[in-house]
Amino acid sequence: MDFFDVIHQRHSIRHFIKKTVEKEKIDSILDAANSAPSAGNLQAYEIFIIEDSHLKRALADAALGQESIMEAPVVFVFFSNPMRSAVKYGKRGAELYALQDATIAAAYSQLAATAVGLGSVWVGAFNEDAVTAALGLGTSSDIKPVAIIPIGYPAEKPRKTPRRRLDDIVHYK
What we know:
Layout: H1 3-9, H2 23-34, E1 45-50, H3 53-62, H4 68-71, E2 74-80, H5 82-115, E3 119-120, H6 128-134, E4 144-152, H7 166-169
Antiparallel strand pairs: 1-2, 2-4, 3-4
């Protein structure tokens, strides 16, 4: 699939058919996330792959009842790793660069999911402590949840959403 087709075909998919995602597709998505640029090439993020229904239920509950997490056959949870970035960049690395690293990797994973014929949705509304606890990391964990990305075969075809005009968001100086 052409890169620009991938960008334009990526939509938020909240309903999935009950079909297992092949390991090769998961590996392709992980490879794309691993290829994402990161500050100092530190890759200050961690990725948890969730297929267990009990863990997905706990994540859905932590995410204010977002049932797409339960419907998806696989869920990626992206965490920033502030201390990994802080080693080289100090406070700015811990507070910003690690967060950027995790979000870029998560965005790459969504584009890769689209490229291999899958759908996904970015879930950012969640209780951080509940996500961390659900994965058995405890509230004192050094890593912080950034995004939950349910992935699977789409059971819906959302219509294209309106976007702001470029002259509203681009400012040449």
